[in-house]
Amino acid sequence: MTAEAAPGPLQGLRVLDLSRVLAAPLATQILGDLGAEVIKVEQPGRGDDTRGWGPPFLEDGSGQPDAAYFFCANRNKRSVAIDFAKPEGAALVRRMAAGADILVENFRTGGLARHGLDAASLLRLNPRLIYCSVTGFGQTGPYASRGGYDFLIQGMSGLMSVTGRPEGEPGAGPMKVGLPVSDLFTGLYATVSILAALRHRERTGEGQHVDCALLDSQVSLLANQAMNHLVGGEVPRRLGNAHPNVVPYRDFATSDDYILVACGSDGQFRALCRLLERQDLADDPRFATNAGRNRDRRVLEVELAKAIAPWRAAELLAAMAQAGVPGGPINGIDQVLQDPQVIARGMLREMRRDDGTAVRVIGYPVQLPRSPASYRLAPPRLGQDTRAVLQEALGLGVAEIEALREAGVVALADARRAERMA
C-alpha cells in the first residue's frame, strides 16, 4: 500500500476543525496526515483567512483562486461551509461535535460560547470529546481576553530579544524569525497534547479541554537561553548568528559566499584548526576548552575569519566534511527544495484537487515504516464537501440541504468544474 492510500495510525478518528490561519490548522493537518478524518468548517463565501493571503495564488481557472499560504496547513481535510453565527448553523456544528472524537478551534477565549460551541457546552453533549483551544494567551490569566498573533508573541516571549545583530554592529536591533515559529511550535504542542488526551481517554473514557497558548509554547522553547538566565543570572542578548554557549558556532565569509561552522566539541575545533593550518589556535591554552573559547570568542573568531576568508565556499565545505568538521551552506528556499537529501526523504509531494488542479506540498517529516503518513486529500476548495458531509455525518436529505443553502446557513461549492475534470 502506498503512502498516498495508507490508512494511518489515527484511522477511525473524526476531527472537527473550526480553526483558521496556521497554528491550529497545522495541528489538524498533522492529525489528518496520520489518518484521521478531518472536517474543516469554514465561513461561507470567505473561508479560512489564508485563502486570500496572496499573492501568489494557485491559478485553477476560477475567479477566486486560493493563496499559496492556504496549502501549507490544509491537506487531508474536507471543507464544509457553515455559518454557525446563525442558530441553524450552530445546531449543525453541535450535531457534528456529538459524533466527533476531537474538536480544534482558535477563536478568542470565550468567543464560541455565544453559539453554544464552547468546551463546557460540547463536553456536556459529548463527554468523550477532546476539545482543543489554541489562543494567544490561554483560557486563564490577565491576558486571556487578548488576541494573539505570532509577531506579537515573538516579541513578548523574549524570542526577538535574542534574535538579530548585536548592538554596535550594522543592522543591530531585535528581529523576528523569518517564519511564524510561535504559531508552528504551538501547532506541534497542540498535536502532542491531543494525542496525550486521547491516551487518557483510552484509559478512562474521559474527554477534556486542551488549552494551548502561543505565549506558553514560545516561552517553553526559550530552552537554553532561559536556563542560562535562571542558572547564571545574566540576561541573554542578541548575538547575530553566534551561539550563546558554543564557540565557534556561527557564519563566516569565504571569498565567494557565507558558510556555517558548528563545532560542538573540542575535537571538532582542533580538526578545524588543522584544516585551516592554524595549529597555533588549537595549541593556545585560551581556546583549549569550549568555556575558554566562549570567554575569548572575539579574539578567536577574528583569527578564524582571517583563515576562512581566502577559501571558496564549496571547497571549504567539502574539506570540512572530509575532516569531520560540521558545516554547511546557507541555502535559499529554492535551493533546499531541490536538495537531493530533501528529495530522497520524500519531503515534496504532488497532489491533485478535486477539479484536477495539481499542487505541490511539503510532506510529513517523520518516517513511520509500519504506519506511514498519507496524502489522501489535497487542500480542498471552499465548501467542496458540504453536501457529502451533511449527508454522511448527519443523514440530511437533499431537500434539507437545499433549504439550508437557500437560508444562507450553508454554502455548496460549484461541483460542475470537478465533474468536468472527472
Automatic annotation (TrEMBL):
InterPro entries: CoA-transferase_III_domain, CoA-Trfase_fam_III, CoA-Trfase_III_dom3_sf, CoA-Trfase_III_dom_1_sf. PANTHER family: SUCCINATE--HYDROXYMETHYLGLUTARATE COA-TRANSFERASE (PTHR48207). SUPFAM superfamilies: CoA-transferase family III (CaiB/BaiF). Keywords: Transferase. This is CaiB/BaiF CoA transferase family protein. It comes from Teichococcus globiformis. Transmembrane segments: none annotated. One of its GO terms (molecular function) is transferase activity.
